[in-house]
Here is the input.
Amino acid sequence: MPTVNREKKTGNRRAGRGGPGGRQTVWIVICVVAAVAIAAVALVMTLGSLKRGEDTTPPTGDTAEDTAPPVTEPPTEPPEDTAPPETEPPTEPPEDTASPEPPKPRSPLTNLEVEEDISARRPWAVMFDNIKGAAPQTGITAADMIFEILAEGNITRLMGIYEDFDGMEILGGVRSSREYFAEMALGLDAIYIHAGGSPGAYTFFQKYKVDRIDGVNGSGETFHRDAYRKSTFGTVHALVVETTELAGYAEKYKLRTEHKEGYTAPFTFDDETERTGDRAVTVTAHFGSGKSAKTTGFTYDPESGQYLVSQFGGFMGDTAVKDTVKVRNIIALNAKIYVLNDDDKGRREAELTGTGTGKYMVDGVARDIQWSRDSRTGFFTFTYTDGTPVALGTGKTYFLLLPMSGTVELGA
Here is the structure.
């Protein structure tokens, strides 16, 4: 009995130590657990890939170029009749945001640009001595228009028309009037400045109520004898008018300084039409047919487009400036100008109403013209021989009123 019990205990101890039968069972269990674990991991990975949308197909040995791209739907084109969305056109910046400057006003006598509108302002007409011993004059270059007419015998006088005195403080030497000079001033509605005059001139002043300033039979407030002219030309040729005093004089003596309503200057201008006619590079005006007749010359300067005026063997100068009188236009008219029979000084008379002939020179060419004048208070009307009105070139104008025996000589 004791022996049996000892064997049972021995056998139990062997089994617990992992004999052959026990080790086999352990390995089987381990393998089963490992297989289950591997299967579980694979299942989890597969489910994860499916959730992410990944391709579970194992890669092959083909390259990426051989792999077809995924099929996608073609883009849907809009229907043909569907208009594109409207958009505002791009806004271009303005070329110049500054408003253009308005054109400057122009002189009614020259058509030159001026700083302010002077069309309503009356001009001034000033009588100048014009004998050789009294030349050159003072301030004559500032005149917008110049009239030259015989005064007595073969002596001419000048009358300058001024819209602005252009800085000239004095003008002279101032000399006496003839009624036909006053007619020209009246035709331009100018205030007339003179120093004395013929009996016929004073009759005309009274009859036509001419606004004037007289340096001999007037107050003398705006005149003096210029020292330079007195020492150079003598006392009789030294009388000058002070331009700075004229406005005050006109106001004091209630002279009208503006044109009456409706007044229009009697000139038109044209710088666009090509000038045609006879060559007139030089122009010589003869105030009569005799050898002693006064002559006035003009020489065309193509660079400036002006005629340079000459007399007494040289250019017509100005004691106030070192310059020559220059004009754009020359108008020479023939009229009945004659010596008065009962005048012991050889004074002249001029009939400047009716019709007559003449020449117009501008830009180096000359054309025949006709003139007409209806009354002694109006101005001339000029036309070409075909009846076309004469339009002046922009610039100053020199008027020559010649007797019927006077001539105009043209040179090329």
User: Anything to note?
Assistant: Residues 1-22, 46-72 have pLDDT under 50 and may be disordered. The first helix runs from residue 2 to 16. Residues 124-411 form a domain with the YerB-like fold fold (CATH 3.50.90.10). The chain is about 20% helix and 25% strand.
